[in-house]
């Protein structure tokens, strides 16, 4: 059993990642800033609230680009960080450019810095395929960074 931090947990694919990790017996810290983007805030909040009711999942509303990441120290030691937080959709990126940059660049850099200075090892980009439990849909997930605690 490992302790996972999953960012962007209220997004559709990220929600499924949290569920599958929990169902596999892992502890999950589900993190999301609940920033409106591709999904409306009501839809994201609904998924986030359902994660709160799951075994082995703790939720935290935190905007990676703006909030203090030292709040993550309040949780049990994190073994693996799966950074899936991002604002998808290239079309929308031109409409809300600054928000897109904050969510996709600033937040990722801030998260990387936070964990790298604490001795985590970053692995480069990779893709993972998973299928959801209640549908036969296969999804591809692009993970920008996955951090493993060293030592």
Please tell me about this protein's structure.
The protein is an alpha/beta fold and 151 residues long. It has one domain (3-149): Rossmann fold. It has four helices and eight strands. It has a six-stranded mixed sheet with strand order 3-2-1-4-8-5, with helices on both faces. The longest helix is centred in the C-terminal third of the chain and has 20 residues, at 97-116. The radius of gyration is 15 Å and the shape is globular.
**CATH fold field value:** Rossmann fold
Strand-residue proportion: 25-35%
Rg, Å, rounded: 15 Å
Counting DSSP E segments of at least 2 residues, the number of strands comes to: 8
Strands of the widest sheet, in order across it, are 3-2-1-4-8-5
Name the CATH superfamily assignment. NAD(P)-binding Rossmann-like Domain
CA-based shape: globular
Topology, element by element:
Layout: E1 3-7, H1 12-23, E2 27-32, H2 41-52, E3 57-61, E4 80-83, H3 90-95, H4 97-116, E5 120-123, E6 126-131, E7 138-143, E8 146-149
Parallel strand pairs: 1-2, 1-4, 2-3
Antiparallel strand pairs: 4-8, 5-8, 6-7
State the main characteristics.
151 residues, alpha/beta, Rossmann fold, six-stranded mixed beta sheet, 4 helices, 26% strand, globular
Summarize the structure.
This protein has 151 residues and is α/β, with parallel strands linked by helices.
């Amino acid at each position: 059993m490992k302790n996972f931090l999953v960012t962007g947990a209220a997004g559709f694919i990220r929600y499924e990642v949290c569920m599958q990790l929990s169902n596999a017996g892992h502890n999950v810290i589900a993190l999301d800033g609940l920033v409106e983007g591709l999904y409306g805030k009501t839809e994201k909040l609904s998924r986030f609230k359902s994660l709160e009711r799951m075994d082995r999942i703790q939720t935290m509303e935190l905007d990676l680009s703006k909030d203090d990441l030292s709040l993550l120290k309040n949780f049990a030691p994190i073994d693996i960080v799966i950074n899936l937080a991002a604002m998808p959709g290239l079309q929308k990126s031109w409409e809300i450019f600054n928000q897109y940059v904050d969510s996709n660049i600033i937040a990722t850099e801030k998260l990387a810095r936070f964990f790298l200075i604490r001795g985590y090892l970053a692995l480069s980009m990779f893709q993972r395929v998973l299928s959801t439990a209640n549908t036969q849909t296969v999804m591809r997930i692009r993970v920008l960074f996955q951090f493993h605690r060293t030592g």
